Amino acid sequence: MAEQQLSAHPRAHSVVRQSAGGVTQISDYQPKRYTIIGDHLTQHHDLSLTAIGLGAHIQSLPDGAAVDIRTLAGKFHEGRDRIAAALRELEDHGYLKRVRERTPEGRIVTRTLSYNVPGATGTRRAAEPVTSVTEPVVERPTLPAPEHAVRPPAATTPPPPPSSVTTPTAPPPLPEPNTPAPQLHRTAAALLAELRRDDERLLLAERDVRRLAPGVAAWLERGAAPDAVRRTLAVGLPPNLRHPAALLAHRLTAQLPPPLPTAKARSRPAPLQNCGGCDRAFRAPRPGLCRDCREAQQARTRVAA
Hints:
Blueprint: E1 14-17, E2 25-28, H1 39-42, H2 49-59, H3 69-75, H4 80-92, E3 96-102, E4 108-114, H5 182-193, H6 206-221, H7 226-234, H8 244-254, E5 272-274, E6 281-283, H9 291-304
Antiparallel strand pairs: 1-2, 3-4, 5-6
Helix pairs in contact: 2-4, 5-6, 6-8
């Protein structure tokens, strides 16, 4: 028996791509236990490294795995606050969606939907077997068209109705202080960072604190006390709060208080003067006679006249 010749080359176990500088990729073949993750996640410019790593970890988990804050904090060393902030980042950018559902037993549970592509609407389905059936091809003769055949008019497609979708309007800009005041901005940033002490759902990212600080500074410039601003922002939150930064921006804009009215300067009273006739003290801008002495002098003048 002749020796069998293999026409296909064996699969390379590792591939090294040399580069002039920077990183050198060493890719090893993985026959199983690997996850395909898009570069749009691993190279996302608006997500933090914690959110990118957490998103890759969640996409590698099987269906039904627990991804709540307590479970993830038990696996990693980032702590609950950083994990909660990373989950909100992934939810804001469309990689996660948390849905509250009621079980047949009456319990309320949270189901987390993980999207490997933001905005995808498809669901994961198992591959179905495809049966290939070969049918015989029957060739039919083509008949020539009659000479005076009348062709039917081409079907016209009615124009589509005008779109009723309205373009959403951009939210109004955040208020800003009239004069630059670095101390007000520092106080505003500290106030926003401490809102999580009132409600843990108000844990804001650093970029959100920088974006909202001018709005809080405008409130402080108008005479609002820091405690009053904090109560306005942290009281009466909705039970299903999902975007705390957007809610705070709306409250800072919609509930902006008016400036305090300027107090009118009171006029100072005239100084005390000593009357030149009776030596009695009276108020007048310049020295002279009091009212009684003036009236007496005017009466003597009329009599003399």
